[in-house]
Amino acid sequence: MKLINTDGMAFIGPGSEWFWTALSGFVLAVTFIAIYRQLGLQRSAAAIEQMAALDREWHSERLVRAKLVVLLAMRDGSDTKDLEATTTVGDFWERIGFLVRDGHIEPRLVNEYFSTMIRTWWARLAAVTVAYRVEAGAPEAWEHFEWLATRMADMDRKAGRTQAFDEAYLVRTLARSIEGCVEDIHAAEELRAVTVRPLSPASLGAEPAPEPAAG
User: What is the pTM of this model?
Assistant: First the structure.
């Protein structure tokens, strides 16, 4: 019993056009699949590098020092609303919020890498943000930051993550956050340190006197 009737089929020469057309279509399909997979890998690599770049910036010495100033003010009960450091921290997340909201960064990746940090810092700065909005008459101040924190909370809830970022959580984590900033600053300072090595014993002795010229 024949499953495929090949009688009268030509694979080479006249009448074989159907075969070469089908083969060309198959090759094109395989090529398109390979290109699609390659583009997918490139997008994944770009997304990972994007998250790594944001993480490096968030842990840069400039931002770590700003975070430390804000955290120390909170520990001491000082107002953080007018601190330049508060603006530095808030503006970072405001920018990320805008990029996510405008479709330039995948929300899922931000949620995976930064959700806890975003929600923690919004909980720390929400009150001063509201106060500033009223005082300055600027209801749009840090609107993207607020939107981002809300989006992260929604995504966490759907994923079954139930951590509450309330006052008790902020008090409980304050000391450890300060300690982490201090450690990061020390690490950055050590990376900038220049190691001065002593000269070798051979180079510490007096230089030999030059020999007199002959004749």
Answer: 0.71
